[in-house]
Amino acid sequence: MAVLTRIGPASAVNVGLVAYALLGLVAGVFCGAIALAGISLGPHARMPWVGSLGLLAVVVCPIVYGIIGGIAAVVSALLYNLAARFVGGLSVEIN
Questions:
Q1: Which domain holds residue 57?
Q2: How do the pLDDT tens digits run along the chain, 95 residues long?
Q3: How far apart, in whole angstroms, are the C-alpha atoms of residue 94 and residue 8?
């Protein structure tokens, strides 16, 4: 049994940023598809630029999700490090 006593905040930011950016890409594709599918049905059918907003979600969602995920990961790592000082860390079995 190994004991995880500390998580490096810098590595937590990297992992959180990449993981949530990938999640944001998936969410952006779904949001873009929904927006593009509903263009002809909505009251904005006479505004052709609205279709580009659906495609913009594919770019904006990964960036926003990545930033929020990176911030959440560093805060979580700092909270874990603080808690691990008091309780001794997390037991992990590594093969």
A1: 13-39+48-87
A2: 888 889 999 999 999 999 999 999 999 999 888 877 776 666 665 666 666 777 888 899 999 999 999 999 999 999 999 999 999 889 988 88
A3: 19
Nearest of 74, 64, 71 to residue 25 by alpha carbon: 64
pTM above 0.85, yes or no: no
Q: Please report, for residues 4, 9, 91, 94, the alpha-carbon distance to residue 1 in angstroms, rounded to integers and kept in the order given.
A: 10, 23, 6, 7
Q: Are 4 and 89 spatial neighbours (Cβ–Cβ below 8 Å)?
A: yes
Whether 58 is covered by a domain: the verdict is: yes
Please report, for residues 26, 66, 89, 95, the alpha-carbon distance to residue 58 in angstroms, rounded to integers and kept in the order given. Answer: 8, 13, 39, 39
